[in-house]
Amino acid sequence: MSFDTVGEGSRDQLVLELSVAQKVNFASSQNGVSVLKSVVLQNLSDAPLENVTLELTCSPGLIRLKTWAVDRLAPGQRQELGNLETPLDTVILGGINEAEWGELQFVVKHGEAELLKEQRPIEMLARDEWGGVGDMAHLLAAFVSPNDSVARRVRHAVTFVPHHHIKGLCSARSHRYS
Fold first, then answer.
1. What one-character-per-residue DSSP string does the chain give?
2. C-alpha span between 178 and 172 (Å, rounded)
3. Which of 52, 82, 137, 156 is most buried when burial is the number of CB atoms within 10 A of its CB?
4. Could you read off the pLDDT of 38-62 as tens digits, one per residue?
């Protein structure tokens, strides 16, 4: 799964660095893939920031509301946030028949005041659609199924090989490589 790390947002000397998935599908939800790889807040101002929250929402509701609380962010401090698990909604992803676009929205707040807002697009692929080697190489096995006619012929051919031939093959190989 490729992750988008380009496009850092900043306002009033607050920086939000994000590494998020660009594509998800039904297999992503079944395999517990998180849409977040890293989330970093950085205070570039000369004053500390206290009692800051970061909220993550998604439209459509692909993931539940996620909130992080940061008690204090000192001047110049860069804080990588933990607990990046974002379980995907299996029902939504299972019902998609063709690719659709969604949006992840990140909002940094101090009380009710919005300090920073960032959006990232996320492509929600159809149930049977794979995002490719660059985006979802780790999910390839979820999309591989044996060719029934070929698999049937191989199983049939192996069934009729006499056992003494198999033993002979094994002993010939062991002598050849020893």
1. --EE----EEETTEEEEEEEESEE-HHHHHTT--SEEEEEEEE-SSS-EEEEEEEEEEESSSS--EEEEEEEE-TT-EEE---------HHHHHT-SS-EEEEEEEEEEETTEEEEEEEEEEEE--TT----HHHHGGGGGGG----HHHHHHHHHHHHTS-HHHHHHHHHHHHHHH-
2. 10
3. 52
4. 999 999 999 999 999 999 999 998 8
Q: How many CB atoms lie within 10 A of CB 108?
A: 23
Residue labelled with tokens 């900043």: 10
Q: Which two tokens stand for residue 174?
A: 């062991």
Tokens of 134: 């660059």
pTM attached to this predicted model: 0.70
